[in-house]
Amino acid sequence: MCEGCRIYLDQMRTTVAVLGRFELDALAPDIRNGFLDAFRDWQRSDDRQRGRYRAAGDATRSFPRSQTALLVIDPVNDFLSDGGAAWDLTKTTVEKHDVVGNLKRAIEGARGRGVPVLFAPMAYTEEDYDDEQLQRRSGINRLMFERKMFLAGSWGADFHPDLRPLDDEVVLLPHKGMDVFETDLPDHLERLGTTHLVIAGMTASLCCESTGRRAMERGYDVTFLSDAIGADNPAAYEAAIHLDYPLIANAVLEVEEFLAGLDDQAGAPAAAGDRVLGSDHGEIGEVKEVVERAEDVPAHLVVARGAIFERETYIPLDAVVRRVGRDVFVNIPKLVVAKMPWDAPPSAVDDEAKRGPRAPEVERLYRSRDPSAWDARRLTART
User: Fold this and answer.
1) Rounded to an integer, what distance in angstroms lies between the CA atom of residue 97 and that of residue 201?
2) Which of 211, 277, 288, 304 is 20 to 30 Å from 166 by CA-CA measure?
3) CATH code, 275-346
């Protein structure tokens, strides 16, 4: 593609987002055709890469140390120390789950295994409230404003004394809301070559959950550490850990399981006798057999019937995302396993049907309509 087309393409990306179509007639034919070719390439690439699973080529079912990062969100006094501005809200879950102690174990364990630890605190200045009016933006911003939480330079905004970053560790720019991806986090993850993001810290249903959702949408393999996360109330903790995280992430683990996963770099496949757990850490059953892929049968686990399920369960092998010791974790919560079509051995025909049609075979994406931004495709076909 010519350099002029490339420059024009960059300019028009914004235009298509706003207008949903192109004004092409004014272009010289060679520029127009070059642009249309480039646009098609960009559209395919952008659509496919936006949420592509970054660990797609990794079949180890472990945490590859060179591609894993531990993100510790808001490990600061206002949340974790007696006298902090939110301590009366967080005290119950922080003490019940020994969040400070488990965060310390996770941080030190990651450091000792060569896994980068990134710290994501908050800090607010007068300009955030006078100029940006953040206290009017949302309920959580109002709460933090009224309770004088995370004021820049204050003791409350400082790191808990047991959880301070080392001089050479990354401390991110402050997030002003609930999503740490709205800081310099993406730049650091790209620089580190991260594919597996492990999230811990505060609080369960707000910053940890929001950041985990964004990470998943960006293609990261997300794990939450349930005993290294606290919340502003027990109900919010339970809902996040047992209902939300298991669908957002690939796994919800405890700190010791995470560290054991870092130690097991072989990533051995599942074996008969392994215990199968869901992404909500609920026990599904015991592996009776591992069936290898054949011409007409996808690879899968046969989970024996027993006290938990009254029938054998056939779980696709690519649903296995972790193996820690003899525990195998699949990326479906136990709560919904009975709703999955796993009551019979899988077939190649059914496996193919799950994938849907190939993109060139689809006339309109939503059957009766295409996305409005795709109007350019129909214009392309007419030129």
Assistant:
1) 12
2) 211
3) 2.30.30.240
pTM of full prediction above 0.70: yes
Of residues 256, 128, 116, the one with CA closest to residue 189: 116
The HSE-up count of residue 159 (CA atoms within 13 Å, CB side) is 18
CA distance 167 to 357: 52
Burial of 78 (0-12, 13-18, 19+ CB in 10 A): buried
Q: Give the up-direction half-sphere exposure of residue 362: CA atoms within 13 A in the CB hemisphere.
A: 12
d(CA 272, CA 270): 7
Q: Compute the distance between CA of residue 158 and CA of residue 238 in angstroms, rounded to an integer.
A: 27
Matching fold, domains 65-263 and 275-346: no
**Per-residue pLDDT tens digits for 75-113:** 999 999 999 999 999 999 999 999 999 999 999 999 999
Side by side, the strands of the sheet bearing 221-230 are: 170-171, 117-120, 68-73, 196-202, 221-230, 251-253
* pLDDT above 80 for 27: no
Indicate the CATH number for domain 65-263. Answer: 3.40.50.850
| Sequence spans of domains, the chain | 3-50+372-382, 65-263, 275-346
Helices (H) and strands (E) counted in the chain, each on its own, are: 15, 12
Residue 12 neighbours by CB under 8 Å, 6+ apart = 22, 35, 39
